[in-house]
Amino acid sequence: MAATTRDAILGGKLHLVQPAPGTGYRMNQDAVLLADFAHEGRTAERALDLGAGVGAIGLMLLARKTARNVIFVEIDAALATLAQGNVAANQFGEQGRVAIGDVATFECSEVVDLVVCNPPFFPGKTGRISPHEALNQARIGDVSAFIGCARRNVAPKGRVCFIYPVLYLETLVAGLCKAGLVPKRMRLVHPKRDANARVALVEAVVGKPNGLQIQAPWFDDGYVFKADE
User: Fold this and answer.
1) Backbone dihedral angles phi then psi of residue 87, each to the nearest 5 degrees
2) What is the C-alpha separation between 149 and 182, in angstroms, rounded?
3) CA–CA distance, 155 with 51 (Å, rounded to integer)
4) What is the torsion angle, in degrees rounded to the nearest 10, for the CA atoms of residue 89, residue 155, residue 180 and residue 215?
5) 64-87 as b/e: b if 16+ CB within 10 A
6) Which one-letter DSSP state was computed for residue 11?
7) Model pLDDT, residue 124
8) Could you tell me which residues come within 8 angstroms of residue 170 by beta carbon, excluding any fewer than 6 positions away?
9) Which of 1, 74, 77, 176 has the largest CB neighbor count within 10 A?
10) Is pLDDT above 70 for 68?
């Protein structure tokens, strides 16, 4: 791993070692939004963080007790090493386990009540290509592999939470439905109140069609993460 930084999040409740700006994929606002969205549901005994990177989302789940245990799945060995270090440095011990693996084939031996995922969203090579392959891997790829992994591993009464750009939302929803995961809750996030939505937060479950709730929107320019709840 090249240069790294150590950054505080959640008002200093968590610290993350992650690639330095411009050298690799770093956590951003979307990770915080997804962790907050997932927190609105019932507490999970075990959560699965797909494409976990350095572990930001899963660590927020542990910090807020959204999940009692988290398995972090990351294909990039260097990022997985940072995630393991972040789990240890934030004193979560055996509550966090990092698995180096490909979501296309990953299977968990334990029961998973919650899956969270901030997947790549540019199909094929349509996105802006970076000289850093880790950045390309995080942004460019087929979301169906992540959907398949979520469906394969979530318990029958578990839930799956994704964050995805609105421009590609049809692809995500169609993929979830094809896999037998029915969207039941959605929240759109706008940069500001007079701007179009940029990303959608979607919660899906294994079940019958219909019953979707569209929740009140969030706005980036006024969003506050309630870290102490």
Assistant:
1) -60, -45
2) 15
3) 19
4) -60
5) bebbebbbbbbbbeebbbbbbbbb
6) G
7) 55
8) none
9) 74
10) yes
Angle at 35 between CA 32 and CA 37, to 5 degrees: 105
Q: DSSP string spanning 46-73?
A: EEEEET-TTSHHHHHHHHTTSEEEEEEE
Question: Would you say residue 137 has pLDDT above 70?
Answer: no
* Residue tagged 């994929």 (tokens): 25
pLDDT tens-place string over residues 81-106:
999 999 999 999 999 999 999 999 99
Q: Quick one: residue 94, left, alpha or beta (phi over 0 = left, psi -120 to 50 = alpha)?
A: alpha
Token pair recorded at residue 202: 């979607």
* pLDDT for the residue 228: 46
- In three-state secondary structure terms, 92 is coil
Find out whether 120 and 143 touch, Cβ atoms under 8 Å.
Answer: yes
Beta bridge partners of 67: 44
Q: Which CATH homologous superfamily contains domain 29-174?
A: Vaccinia Virus protein VP39 (3.40.50.150)
Counting Cα atoms < 13 Å in the Cβ hemisphere of 37 gives 34
Q: Greater confidence, 25 or 192?
A: 192
For 154, half-sphere exposure in the C-beta direction (CA atoms, 13 angstrom radius) is 29
Q: How confident is the model at residue 119 (pLDDT cuts 50, 70, 90)?
A: very high
